[in-house]
Amino acid sequence: MKFPGRRQHKHYFPVDNKNPLTNQVNRASQLVRNYIVGIDQTLVDIEAKVDQAFLDEFGLQRGMSQVISDDVTERLYNRLKDEALVNYEFAGGTIANTIHNYSVLADDRSVLLGVMSNNIKVGDYAYRFLSNTSSRVDLNHLQPVDGPIGRCFTLIDDSGERTFGINAGLINHLRPESINEELIANASALVISSYLMRTQPGDTMTEAAIKAVECANAANVPVVLTLGTKHLIEKEPEFWREFVQKHVNVLTMNEEEALAITGYSDPLQAADCCLDWVDLVICTAGPEGLYMAGYVDDKFKRETEYPLMPGHVPDFNRYEYSRPMRLSDCEQPIRIYTHTAPYMGGPDSIKNTNGAGDAALAAILHDLSANVYHKRNVENSSKHIQSALTYSSLSQMSKYANRASYEVLVQHSPRLSRGLPEREDSLEQAYWAK
After folding, report:
1. Average pLDDT, the chain
2. Which residues pair with 39 in a beta bridge?
3. What residues bind GMP, as annotated (predicted)?
């Protein structure tokens, strides 16, 4: 596993480097590998530029995410192809994107659970999904189905507003018996999205996801939930509050989803509210940057070297150099927060916002998984005197997440095609040094 982020460090990582005491590679020891598991609705993203008349023709509500029928899907796709309106076709799905990005950043294994067409032809949707997914992502646990996977149309009008048309295909037919309990119990984290709960009568995806979550809870494996879309959350905010409080350890969202579940428009206030339910919160806030909130035991708190920042919580970044912990592991818990402005002020030209939040979450998952990897292989390290949830401080993770999301913003694909640069030519190394 690669070291999470790019900065100076004193701890022994990666653990397969030379032993710092003997300066020799210890070939007798067998490294204990770890992985994360994600459950998703396997689909292909199709992006096109259209006008309002086009949306009206196919009965699509501007700016909304909506399910479309098989008939509308075929007519819509053929029309886009015939008029050469398609800009890009990529493997998609918010969790699949996250899992792929994790494997690219960590250069290590992840496992994706979902469905896949039994019969795959070169050039079809299933083929595009497989060919655009990292070889480090283990797809051997996908459940075969006799039919198509999903298709998500991202239709962009002249103002830049995005309208989503989703054809589910058989993406919600993952069965509970396809969930490998042992696989979940030995994972470093289980990653799900709110989309898994948006199913129709006869679908089995929700039951499968709940089974996986309950397995993770029973095995004390962190459950990570990304809220996905505000429209889904604001329909049943009370359900989501209860679900998060009962099952989730790490919650990730943008400012609109944060408003839907908490009622607070201020990202910091929303993140603070969510700490009533979970151990760690990630809230992306567009051009404002990224907020994170968590817990640390009083004896492990570390003060920042940066100026203190005002906000809903006065001087909220005071302990941002602390490594977050589960609330249950804290004897005297203290809430910690951090904020990072967009990397380099944000890109000059944003090519695509789809997947930026997925890349940020992938960076956080890399850090969480790196902590498990390091602990299993260097268990006597002073790093693990503290029972931390992550390898790095809240501040460092926020920088890493911002840097990863920047890579997606400056490209058309919602997925990373390579890891972060070994050298940051456009930025002082001091960005990573503290």
Report:
1. 89
2. 113
3. 40-45, 93-97, 198
Q: Is 93 annotated as a binding residue?
A: yes
At 219 the pLDDT is 97
- Those residues whose C-beta lies under 8 Å from the C-beta of residue 157, and which sit 6 or more positions away, are 49, 50, 51, 52, 55, 62, 163
Please indicate if the annotation marks 226 as binding a ligand: no
Question: Is 40 labeled as ligand-binding?
Answer: yes
The residue assigned the tokens 């920047």 is 406
Rounded to an integer, what is the distance from CA 324 to the centroid of its chain? 18
Residues paired with 116 in a beta bridge:
144
**Is 408 flagged in the annotation as binding?**
no
Q: Is 287 annotated as a binding residue?
A: yes
pTM of the predicted structure, to 2 decimals: 0.89
Q: Is the residue at 214 inside a domain?
A: yes
96 is in an annotated binding site: yes
The pLDDT-based confidence of 121 (bands split at 50, 70, 90) is confident
Q: What is the CATH number of the domain that holds 121?
A: 3.40.1190.20
In a domain, 47, yes or no: no
97 is in an annotated binding site: yes
pLDDT at 263 (0 to 100): 96
Residue 41 in marked binding region? yes
Give the separation between CA 221 and CA 205, rounded to whole angstroms.
20
Q: What is the DSSP letter of 186?
A: T
Segment holding 370, helix H or strand E = helix 356-377
Q: Would you say 43 is a known binding-site residue?
A: yes
- 21 belongs to a structural domain: no
Q: Is 284 annotated as a binding residue?
A: yes
Residue 45 labelled as part of a binding site: yes
> What is the CA 387 to chain-centroid distance, rounded?
23
Please write the tens of the pLDDT for every residue from 389-399: 999 999 999 99
Domain containing 134 equals 93-149+170-421+428-433
User: 399 is written with which tokens?
Assistant: 């920088």
Q: Which amino acid is at 396?
A: Q
Task: Flag whether pLDDT at 193 surpasses 60.
Answer: yes
- pLDDT tens sequence across 300-329: 999 999 999 999 999 999 999 999 999 999
Tally of domains within the chain: 1
Of the pLDDT bands very low, low, confident and very high (cuts 50, 70, 90), residue 24 is low
**Which of 147-150's residues contact partners 24+ apart within 8 Å by CB, and which partners?**
147/117, 148/117, 149/42, 149/43, 149/44, 149/115, 149/116, 149/117, 149/125, 150/41, 150/42, 150/43, 150/44, 150/93
- The reply to whether 369 falls in a domain is yes
